[in-house]
Design brief:
- The chain is built from 2 helices and 9 strands; from the N terminus they run E-E-H-E-E-E-E-E-E-H-E.
- By secondary structure, it is mainly β.
- The protein has one domain: Jelly Rolls.
- The strands form 2 sheets. It has a 7-stranded mixed β-sheet. A two-stranded antiparallel ribbon has the order 4-7.
- It is globular.
- The relative contact order is 0.28.
Length: 139
């Protein structure tokens, strides 16, 4: 089942207050296994890439090799909580409609603030073979 923030194509997350990109390559994890697996075992997450998890019922950074910024959202896409540079092997038990997991430093670079509205924009996805990994999460 698709989540509230899901859509087709390569997605971007834009802060409506200042027009800055929170993510230019946004993948979505809205099913049980993809939500659990998240960013585990990845060597890094390039600047501009992020993962949108919906719903957010607690986040862990187990088996991750790098810190991440967390942007928690309500059903309307408003920022309800921010957590900068959560290190590997940590928990955050915040419940939210969705959370964006982005490279550490993203919150400051995009000047994201509590109460900001995050807009999700799609652009067409280049064709790829069936079963290929999402380019927003490829290494």
């Amino acid at each position: 089942m698709a989540g509230r923030f899901s859509g087709d194509g390569i997605r971007q997350a834009i802060d409506a207050r200042n027009g800055r990109a929170v993510a230019t390559e946004l993948a979505t994890a809205n099913r049980g296994w993809t939500r659990f697996w998240g960013l585990m075992l990845r060597a890094s997450l390039p600047t501009g890439h992020a993962l949108l998890i919906e719903p957010a019922r607690g986040i862990h950074s187990h088996f991750m090799r790098f810190p991440i910024d967390l942007v928690f959202l309500d059903e309307g896409g408003r920022v309800t909580r921010l957590r900068e540079a959560m290190r590997p092997w940590r928990f955050d038990l915040t419940h939210a409609a969705a959370v964006i997991e982005a490279p550490a430093g993203t919150i400051r670079a995009a000047d994201v603030r509590l109460g900001d509205e995050i807009r999700f924009e799609c652009r067409s996805r280049p064709s790829r073979s069936r079963g290929a990994k999402d380019p927003a999460l490829s290494q």
